[in-house]
Amino acid sequence: MAQASLPSSATCLVDLPNEILFDVLGFLDVSDLLSTSRVNRHLRHLSLTPLLHARRLRSNRAILPPLLTSPSRPTRSDLIARSIVRPRTTAVSSRLNRSLTAIRLARRLAARPSLEMLVQRAVLPRECVPGLAVVHVAPGLVARRRAIERERLKDGLRGFVGMLGEGRRREQRGN
After folding, report:
1. pLDDT tens-digit series, residues 71-81
2. Among 77, 99, 169, 175, which has the minimal tally of Cβ within 10 Å of its Cβ?
């Protein structure tokens, strides 16, 4: 795809004077200013200028009061129904729920059997418990090592059974 060539009199955005760029940036939202600040260092410097944000706050103070009293603005009960605003009772209820859950988990943790008991019941391998074995190994690695050992044992038994089968065949041929 061919690029359209710019006329020689075309000016790049960053070549404009800072005053004009500053005015243009004043019309952008915060998210747009963030995107602009990621273009290059010059625009980052202008986008992060405290004077620009002070100017934006002043203009928002003038625009905001009519928007807050607008008839199209939803009521508090509408915002609560849409779960945008949470009433105080809901916040207290969720805090209480978290506390009760923490208490329940603490009790279950205290009632859980110790690692040594799990080793005695053969639920957990010795290698997985620090202090019971010389080297502490993750349970996943122990399971993988045991699977490899089982495969080696199966291969050895297959070879042994194969040798027995060959010996019987030789005996049958010899008779």
Report:
1. 888 888 898 88
2. 175
Candidates 51, 21, 47, 45; CA nearest to 34 is 47
CA–CA gap between residue 32 and residue 25 (Å, rounded): 9
Residues 89-108, mean pLDDT to the nearest whole number? 95
CB 133 within 8 Å of CB 126: yes
- Is pLDDT of 92 > 60? yes
Structure tokens at 24: 């243009």
Tell me the two tokens of residue 152: 């080696």
Q: Give the bridge partners for 160, in sequence order.
A: none
- What total of structural domains would you count in the chain? 1
Domain of residue 47 covers 13-71
DSSP letter at 38 equals: T
CATH code, domain with 40: 1.20.1280
Short-list 112, 113, 138, CA closest to 125: 138
pLDDT tens sequence across 38-52: 999 999 999 999 999
